[in-house]
Structures are given as C-alpha cells and as structure tokens.
Records
---
Amino acid sequence: NDQHATKRKLDKSVQDHLYFDSYADVSIHEEMIADSVRTDAYRLGIARNGAAIRGKAVLDVGAGTGVLSVFCAQAGARKVYAVEASSIAEQAAQIVRLNAVADRVEVIRGRLEDVELPEPVDVIVSEWMGYALLHESMLNSVLVARDRWLRPGGLMLPSRAELFVAPVSDLVLEERLRFWGSVKERYGVDMSCMTDFARRCIMNRDIAVSAVAVEDVLSHPARFAELDLHAVTEQELQNVRGTFRCDCFGSASVSALCVWFAVSFPGGGGGGGGDKPLVLSTSPFKAETHWKQAVLYLDEPVEVEQDTRVEGEIRMFPSEESARHLCIHVECAVGGLRQQSKTFSIPDGYPDVQ
C-alpha cells in the first residue's frame, strides 16, 4: 500500500511537472495577455480596489509573466509576492525590473504549496480559471494560499465565481449529420447508414471548447453554481453542483448544453458607480475570451419549440486520473421527456489554459 501511495505521489509530481512546463512557452502567455477582456478586467478590478491595496502586502498566485503583480504595484502596493512555479518566472523578474517596480515586487520561483513568505498578506490576486472554470484550474493552490497567508478580513481578487448553462443548437453538427444522406445523390453509393455512427462519434463525451454564436443559444442563461472565494473549501471543489431550468426561445434543435463562467471583483467602495462589482464574463452574449465556452453534446439532437423546458442537474468534479482534470456530469430532460445522463471530460492532449 505504501508503494501505491508513493506511485500516486510520483504520478502527481509528473502531472505537476507537465502542467507547469506547459506554462514555460511563450504562446500561452501571448494568448492570455492578448485576451483584452481578461487582462483589462484584472487591470480595472485591481485599480478599483486601490484603497485596499495601497501600502499593503499582496500575494499573486501563479503569477506567470507578472502582469497582475505589476498592476498591484502600480495601484500602490507596499510589497507584492509573485509566486510562479514554471520557468516563466525568469521572464517575470525581467518584466518587473523593466517596469521599475523591482523594489516592491518579489518574484518567487516555486509551487505555492512549498513557498514561505516573510509575512501574512492583505490581498490575494490570482488568475486561476481554466476551461469551464475548473479544468486545469489553480483554485486549490489559491485556497491553500488564502488559508495560509491571507490576514483575517483580507481581500480576494476576484472574490466570487459563478457558473451558467444554456441549451444550444449546433448548425455545423446538423450539416455534418445530413452529409451522409447526400452521398448517394452525389456519387451513387448510399451511405445513409453512416449517420448514426457519425452522431455517436461527434456527440461524444468530450467537453468541446469552442466559441458559441449568440444566435445558437436557445434560452436565457441559468446560473447553477456560485463560489465565494473567501469561504469555499477544497473539499467543496470535489463536488460543485447545482440544478438548472431553461425555457427555450422558439423552434430549434437542441444539440448541446453550453457552460461558461463569470468572476467578479468587489466594487471597492468610493461611490460613483465604483461600488458595483466588476465582472469578467465568458458568456457567449459577451465579447469572446480565450476560454470560449464549454460545449456538452447530448446523445442526439432534440427538437424544441417556444417555452419547451430544458432542466436538470450539473455536477463538476476532478477526474480520478488527474486532480487537475475536470469531469462534468449532466442529468437533463428536454420537454419533460428522455432523461439524458452523461459524464464528460476534456480529451487528453488539449492545451491547458489559465
């Protein structure tokens, strides 16, 4: 049994190594910084909370290129501890020097879990979100940081996360399924029996990460879960769940459920509209981000009309193979019929993202 535990430990360190290694490459950082919805939300979210940051100690968990740490220094932080496990930390240190904040921003290369800080901090900032919020997410590390280093009454940026779902139609999918029926007309060979096979191949158990067009969303979004980052525990992340109920806009074919998230930064007080939280949303109704949306295909498309109800339960939990990998279990009924039950995961080899 000890041997088994050691193997699990080894596996975990290999997983960690692969994960942190993927952040050493330039393209992932280019994609994140170029995502102006993401980067501007953090820039404004940090600036808005200047009163809580000025003269205080800040911890940036998974600092990457250090952009958030520089934002915090620009907002008047006395000291920023920028913790980064991958070799991008070397570039972060250069960026910090280039921006003349090296006296206040200290880049620490290492896993958050292994790092010692000389003092508790007043603010924790982190861009920890993965696909569908929790895939390859650093949230566990952020919670360890919170429990270990954040002063009582300290601030988490962002402070809240919400998960949403809506039924969607996929016209490209429908075209691909119709294709096999058209082969006979084109080439004189009937291949219509391929339609079922094609449907099983495409409408599989993979979480598809893609940008959903707003016209393909068939109802108002339903919020099915919310995380208060000041209070949520690692234990609760083992099972994030909630129910949803959506009423369809009109006649269409529901081929999938689409899941996305939003995180919010407190308003920071000071009146003048500054009290309203600042929201970074990955909704298909908003400008596209590098997270896009997570698409979960039903087993087969279901026709709906105005006010057809799509309802069910969604449960998100880490895969048994890798704690960083997300599984999503869906129980869903369309128009009160045909309960569908399906567990999805992101296919291996999919590029990690934060």
---
Amino acid sequence: MARALTLPILFVVCGVVVAAVRIAAGSPVAAGIALLVFVLLAGLYSPLAFPRSIGAAEAQRRSAIDGRPIVYWRAGCKYCLRLRIRLGRDARRLHWVDIWRDPAGAAAVRAATGGDETVPTVVLAGRPYINPDPGWVREQLPQST
C-alpha cells in the first residue's frame, strides 16, 4: 500500500511547499489555489479514485458468474486513470484488481503480457486486452436487466 501512496503524498508535499512560497511572497489566494490543485492531483492518483479492489481469485470467480470484465490496475498509472475517468459510472460495473495489493493479480498480468506488469489489463471471457480503448470496454459490459 505504501507504493500506491507515494505519488499522492509527493503531490501533497509539493503543494504545501508551493503554498508556503506563495504565502511568503504575500499571495495567500494563489497559495490556496496551488494547494487545492495539488490536493486534487493527489486524489486522482490515489487508490481513492478507483472502485474498491478485490483479489484476483475473487474477481475471476465473480466474472465467471456475471460475465463482467476484470480490470487489473495500479495507483499512479495514467492509463488506468484515463480508463477509470472515461468509464465514468460504468466503472463500478467491472471487477477491479489492484496489482500492487494482490500478488496473484500481478502474476495474472505478467502471464497475460509476457512477463511485465503493463496495466490496465482488461480480461474478458479469459482473454486479456492490454490498455484497451475505454469505449470498447464500455461496449463489452453486459446489459443491465
């Protein structure tokens, strides 16, 4: 989990430093705006921006039952963030596995990608797709009843 929080913590620390410099320069409004921007970036790049992760085994079990894709991701990945943002509310309809929190998930990604941990890796019906287009992923979701 510490790895997943490194970038968000770095954003917050940088925001505090920039805000302190702005305050020292006599510009408290600019300091507040800068701090807010850095805190928002920290939130976007933290695990909080994603639906709750589950383990790889549980995701595979659930996917076999409901047919929903599995998304293997990690915090700090700009491509994972792009997928998450572009899916919008539909992101909750997928099974998310954080490969930094689940060694079995990391192993599944390495097996699918030839040894590296390229994310996002979306697995649909047992077939992996590396960094797929978010529109395509949305089309693959089972229709709600």
---
Amino acid sequence: MKKIFTLLTLFIVANVFGQSKAESEILSLSKEKFRWQVEAKVDSLANLFDNNVAIIQASGAIKSKKEYLDDVKNGTPVFNSIEIKEASARIFGKTAIVIGKGLFTITKDATEVTYNVMYSEVYVLQNKKWKLVSRHSSHI
C-alpha cells in the first residue's frame, strides 16, 4: 500500500509541477530571445519572429517585425539587461503561450531606467520550428 501511495504521489507531483519537454523548450527559447535582445542579435530575432508578428510594448506602441528589429538594430532603446523573475508555458497543440515577469533595464534618450514588466508571448509551431507571432508587455 505504501508503494502505491508513493507512486501515486510522485505521479501527481510530476504532472502538477513538472514541465513537458515542449514547455521547457519554449521557456528556453523565450529566455534566449531576451538574451538576443540584450546582445542586439537582430538576425537571431528575425529568424524567431513570424513575418506577421505583433509586438505590443509596455508604452502601448504596436510594432511590426521590421519596426521592432530596426529599433533593436538602432539601439532605440538599448536593452542593458533583462532578468526574468518567473515564467510559465502552456502548450495547446501547435500553439504555446508564455507568461512571465521580469526586470527590464533599458537606456533610452541617454537615460537608464528599470521597469517591472509582465509579458505574454504566443508561439506557433511552423515547419518544426517555433515562431513568435505575438508579444504583449505591460508595466507592473
């Protein structure tokens, strides 16, 4: 009886608190995307973004892929650091949603500012690769 209880407990814990392989993959990809922003790796970001991606910034501005990549390329703003405090992922077939919170330190107009940000990202599996199709962030 103890063995059954132990196995059942492990099964429940693994399913409630564990991440699937796809969820772990998406969280790693999202984290990598933030690193690319800080390092201004425009080509890496371009490969991740769907051509029709919509990026809604905390300021309320809505950016297309080209507009956002131009901003990263031109350093408007400069992403000094992005520290993710928490993030979770959910998979729905070929769609993944990431929800997270973090500290974003940027320099804009020669002024460095740190924001507490909450964000959501939507990824779609296309030709065996995850593509970012939507990102929304807001100040906390």
